[in-house]
Design goal:
Shape: globular
Strand content: 15-25%
Strand order of the largest sheet: 1-2-3-4-6-5
Number of helices: 4
Helix content: 25-40%
Largest sheet: 6 strands, antiparallel
Number of domains: 1
Radius of gyration: 16 Å
Oligomer: single chain
Structural class: alpha+beta
């Protein structure tokens, strides 16, 4: 697991955004994501040892969330396309960011109008979408890992 309570490092002796504590919403969501069965965190790889700006959360190697740990506070989640359209129309804080397919991925600004309970439900939904896409063999392997 990656501890994101204070970011992930410094860059060449200069003050860096990761040197300050992340906001409370990011810390709360990080704890929520880390408690999901079988989920694990990997820092987003950066060139030349730069500190990562975000952490990817995966289930059996398949990504279901990206949580920022430096700079702007946001989370990117997999989402049903019809629900994604509704969320974009309902909340100003739901949009798109990154190279991921905008039909299936949404970005939620953690400082905007989306309630934290709604964000937790969307995270659980993202996890469920990935779990539903696992093969029987992967589900069995995950079940065996969780029993150990």
């Amino acid at each position: 697991m990656v501890d994101v309570s204070r970011g992930l490092g410094k860059s060449r002796g200069k003050p860096h955004a990761s040197d300050v504590p992340i906001n409370w919403a990011t810390a709360e969501l990080s704890a929520f994501l880390n408690e999901m069965s079988g989920a694990y965190a990997e820092p987003v790889p950066m060139p030349r040892g730069a500190p990562p700006p975000a952490v990817m959360y995966k289930l059996m190697g398949k990504m279901f969330a990206i949580l920022s740990i430096r700079g702007e506070a946001f989370v990117i989640l997999k989402c049903d396309p019809a629900l994604a359209d509704i969320l974009r129309q309902t909340y100003a804080g739901v949009g798109h960011r990154s190279h991921l397919d905008r039909r299936f991925w949404i970005s939620i600004d953690l400082n905007a109008d989306v309630p934290m309970d709604e964000i937790r439900k969307l995270i659980a939904g993202s996890y469920d979408l990935i779990y539903a896409g696992l093969t029987r063999k992967q589900k069995a392997e995950l079940g065996a890992r969780l029993q150990d």
